[in-house]
Amino acid sequence: MNRESAAPAGAGAFDATADIVVVGGGGGGLPAALFSRWNGDEVILLEKAEQLGGTARKAAFWYWVPNNVRMREAGIEDPEEDFLRYAARLSRPQQYDPSSPTLGLSEWEFAQIRAIYESASPAAELLAERDALPYRWCEAVPDYWAELPEDRAPIGRVFVPEGARESMSDGGLVGVATMSAAAERDGVDIRLRHRVQRLVIVDGAVVGVEATGPQGTVRVGARKAVIFASGGFTHDPELRANFLSAPAYGGCAAITNEGDFVRIGSAAGAQLRNMNQAWMCPVPLESAVSRDPSLSGMFSVAGDSMLFVDKTGRRVVNEKLPYNELAQMFFQWDPLRGEYPYLVLVQVWDQRAQENSASDEYGRLIVGSTGASDAHVLRGETLEELEDAVRERAAKYATVTGGLALADDWADNLRASIARFNEMAETGVDRDFGRGERAVQQLFNGDVREEPGRTNPTMWPLSASGPYYAALVTGGTLDTKGGPKATPDGQVVDDMDRPIPGLYGVGNCVASPSARAYWAGGATLGPIIAFAYRAANAATKEQQRTVSSSVLSSSGHDREELAWR
Amino acid sequence: MNRESAAPAGAGAFDATADIVVVGGGGGGLPAALFSRWNGDEVILLEKAEQLGGTARKAAFWYWVPNNVRMREAGIEDPEEDFLRYAARLSRPQQYDPSSPTLGLSEWEFAQIRAIYESASPAAELLAERDALPYRWCEAVPDYWAELPEDRAPIGRVFVPEGARESMSDGGLVGVATMSAAAERDGVDIRLRHRVQRLVIVDGAVVGVEATGPQGTVRVGARKAVIFASGGFTHDPELRANFLSAPAYGGCAAITNEGDFVRIGSAAGAQLRNMNQAWMCPVPLESAVSRDPSLSGMFSVAGDSMLFVDKTGRRVVNEKLPYNELAQMFFQWDPLRGEYPYLVLVQVWDQRAQENSASDEYGRLIVGSTGASDAHVLRGETLEELEDAVRERAAKYATVTGGLALADDWADNLRASIARFNEMAETGVDRDFGRGERAVQQLFNGDVREEPGRTNPTMWPLSASGPYYAALVTGGTLDTKGGPKATPDGQVVDDMDRPIPGLYGVGNCVASPSARAYWAGGATLGPIIAFAYRAANAATKEQQRTVSSSVLSSSGHDREELAWR
User: Fold this and answer.
1) How far apart are CA B486 and CA B499, in angstroms?
2) Same CATH fold, B283-477 and B13-277+481-551?
3) Which residues of B469-499 are buried (b: 16+ CB within 10 A; e: fewer)?
4) A271 contacts chain B (CB < 8 A)
5) Are A283 and A478 in contact (CB under 8 A)?
């Protein structure tokens, strides 16, 4: 289904109508549809893909719920003012002002983060009560900036779908399954393979959408509201290149996340916000370039006897930084040479790490024999052989990396980098980059061989003999954070901050107040669920549009013969 | 004149009409109006400010003209394919692919840089021939990346208005004066104090604009086209924060550059491009925060016995980097501490630099007794006194710098930084940051005391005794680079790359193909003049709109009594 013009359509008959039309059936759309349905609204959900779930399906589906019921039961205090300080401090660090009524944020951003605090917990509880998303409390998972003085509740805010495995990596599959089942059970009218192309606008109000379905264009009317939850623009290279702060490669968002609401919302006069930021994640170069739909971001860089080096063979980064921070390191600019010197880094590990840290979870690059692809893995019996393999692979990608090539003395420098790394690993103290110093860095360490007595489980000396392994890593997005600006109740606003009647948005398709922050694991889905709840509750109060009968056909006249499902 | 809704207006009578309506009377609008007028079109130029000139008035008005007549006369070859390689290599370094037909750029970007090569020289020649912009060839000025192998014509591309003083710093005043005089002479109808608020669109075609003038709203019809040249969004903090790749403070664009065409163009369905990039420049913190309309970017960081240190007192950057590159250093992110550690740097100099490098040109911070403001200058007889002064000033700005404060041992670290700097200055080799290594770094060195025999005129040891001086520096924009996407002929396009009939744009109000590059001094105005020429030549070929007579009043019916001038 190709993209068509996003210019709004006008009056005319609809093929189907509902109170609420939800666009997108992932981590934002499913909750929005459920909350709307539970409010008594008729809901049609249009999903572009062949299946529900969007990006959430691929995620661990942690969700970050400040001041949640479990914390309160356990006596963990998470007062609003401290939560707001933590969020503001990280969202706009250069503007953070604890003495300001909005903590240095814009009024809109401040209102948005208050909305998260207020609604994430009731939203999560309602989803659980209705058996749409039973959860397990991850009481030991720390925030990503747990050490900041502003973080007064550094652990306890994370939930995961109840049935997820111990490692939580399949949380998305579980959560999407339970929410989808609840949507079926409770009568959400789900129509897959429908790509919404544009809004239907009559007299300045959004009264429906036009979508491309399996049988062609269909017009779906919305008596109360259209709620977009169609994801970000991770898979639109043009939007990435022209909006994101870093020239990130693709990422692990659902492959259907092509920025549809950037265009559709703009065409209705919405203002765009936070278009420069993304939820970032390192990614294996090969899968990012090939736009592999199964691509997982590297949420966890596995291995202790493992390091990253640059094209000169030098270690330049703390490999265990949280993924959002690590991903940004690839885009440091060298103002003298006019290049991104770390655009592609090389992960190097030894046989010991291969044997003890292999995993097919969380996008780890050290894979074992579980069936996960190892097409990205290069191998050499010696560092010189490894250099040959890396050089050959890099050459294959030179046209999409600005001509990336290894330095002539790469193996020599790598040997020196390993020597220094090994010396520091012996002591457990990374004097260069502080690897393993923070709780969050250990959280994502992955499996490593137990080494009794060591103080830093993220580091161990690499072996003096091969085989050695390597993979090419770059920075990508989990998904983007920008899009139309919406009120704390999800109402999309125009250039004068006036709500566009009937138009709502939640999730990665609208602007996130997180700005540059990745507050914690689940800081994506927790707020998204909160906003889905608020949008559904606001949309249900919209008066049914009084457009002429020729515009909104009654549901009895739906052209059911189209059999969209 | 406050901003109003940018939602397009519809049919209705006009207060005035012309063939071409130009919005903005700066470095893009004046040439666009002149070229249009010389094509025989009636032109109304609407300028928001009380005077013509926009950002160009404040600039040195270098303009970069590849393969120009003077180069050809002097036998300097500047072949197109090499020019394109140089431009592409710097615009999108991470995509640059010399083997690709578009060199790794998008087709649109490639077509745009070809248009610059093709049209900058004829445009410059025509402006000179008509006595609107006589020029002086700056035959010795190098490109900013002259050392790159892709730059086959590293000197010779820069022009400056003919009557500019030797230092060229008043080029903008001269160029704006000559172009304004030509516009008056040749019958461009110039109307100041008119803020265009929205387009008038009838049957999908742009047929005019609505502006707020001294007497209220006026509607100005355009029989052929409206050409926007209204500047970037340097002075809209919301747009800066939500689009730019770096959280830059304000800058030296005309204070009226508030992103008007981002909103107005979007409301007509234009797609936005290159919204993440800006022409960047260091700026003195105080003027940037106060939005001083007279703010000059620091195009030249003056002084040899001068260095920059961070809030810990450590030297962290090559102070003589070209301004666009230097400005980006302020926004390096520290992923462990969650802050921009270099958001504000401290320029420190000694009495020797004060006496020999003072200047009121090019935004230099070492000012003498010429009347330029020295409100940003801090002073101490000792480094400890200097620390006190800097600490006090930083505290004053803590609410807008994320709580910036000097480290306790700042003066000690500064002393050590000076010692190391002095040691390197003795040898003329900056082993830490390569200061003075490139031609462009020496170009902007400013006045320094002659020191016979030294090899590096950008460095000299700081005195062991006071007084010492300091100033707070951060990163800002000269102006931004993003906005509606336009074809190489200036036609603004919608989300399907279809030209929006009657709508054109040139200059910093539309997307620049330079992406992240600042190719050379004058790489702003040279291309802008080229695109003004192309837009005027395309717009003149537009058929006069056949909208009903009630929409376009004849010029005889203009309500001249409004006396807009």
Assistant:
1) 8
2) no
3) bbbbbbbbbbbbbbbbbbbbbbbbbbbeeeb
4) yes
5) no
* Contact flag A100-B399 (C-beta cutoff 8 Å): yes
Assigned token pair, B224:
């052929």
Per-domain residue ranges of chain B: 13-277+481-551, 283-477
Residue of chain A minimizing CA distance to B336 = A321
Q: Which two tokens stand for residue B255?
A: 């204070």
- Which residues of chain B lie closer than 8 angstroms to A318, CB-CB? 335-336
Side-chain-facing half-sphere of B467: CA atoms under 13 Å? 10
Q: CA angle at residue A165 from A162 to A171, to 5 degrees?
A: 60
What was the pLDDT predicted at A547?
54
Q: pLDDT digit string (tens) for A489-545? A: 999 999 999 999 999 999 999 999 999 999 999 999 999 999 999 999 999 999 998
Coil, strand, or helix at residue B116? helix
CB contact under 8 A, B267 and A269: yes
Helix, strand or coil, per DSSP, at residue B542: coil
**Partner B, chain A 213-252, Cβ-Cβ below 8 Å:** 238, 241-247
Q: Which residues contact A419 (CB under 8 A, 6 or more apart)?
A: none
A345-350 mean pLDDT: 98
CA distance A545 to chain B (A): 22
Residue with tokens 């192998």: B149
Domain B283-477 class, CATH top level: alpha beta
User: What is the Cβ-side half-sphere exposure of residue B148, based on CA atoms within 13 angstroms?
Assistant: 23
SS3 content of chain B, % helix, strand, coil (to 5): 30, 20, 50
Across the interface, of A266, A335, A402, the residue whose CB is closest to B94 is A402
Per DSSP, the three-state class of A212 is: strand
Contact residues, chain A, for B4 at CB < 8 Å: 496
Residue in chain A closest to B149 (alpha carbons) equals A337
Tokens coding A38: 């539970």
Residues ≥6 apart with Cβ < 8 Å to A149: none
What is the SS3 assignment for B204?
Answer: coil
The per-residue pLDDT for range B222-258, each reduced to its tens digit, is: 999 999 999 999 999 999 999 999 999 999 999 999 9
Side chain identity at residue A44, one-letter code: I
Pairwise CB contact (< 8 Å): A335 & B343: no
Say whether the peptide bond before residue B457 is cis (omega within 30 degrees of 0).
no
Residues B42-62: what's their mean pLDDT?
A: 97
A6 touches chain B (CB under 8 A): yes
- Inform me whether the pLDDT recorded for A370 exceeds 90: no
DSSP string across B282-339: EEEHHHHHHT-TT----S----SSEEEE-TTS---S-TTS-HHHHHHHTT--BTTTTB
Q: How many CB pairs under 8 A join A and B?
A: 170
Please state the separation of Cα A221 from the chain's center in Å: 30
Tell me if A263 and B99 make a contact (CB, 8 A cut-off). no
Q: Could you tell me the pLDDT band of residue B371, with boundaries at 50, 70 and 90?
A: confident
Single pTM value for the model: 0.95
Q: Among A125-134, A293-302, B46-55, where is mean pLDDT lowest?
A: A293-302
The CATH number given to B13-277+481-551 is: 3.50.50.60
Whether the Cβ atoms of residue B266 and residue B6 lie closer than 8 Å to each other: yes
* Phi, psi values for residue B7, rounded to 5°: -60, 130
Return the pLDDT at B549: 39
CB contact under 8 A, B269 and A90: no
- Closest residue in chain B to residue A263, using alpha carbons only: B495
Contact A57, A489 (CB under 8 A): no
DSSP string, B171-189: HHHHHHHHHHHHHHHTT-E
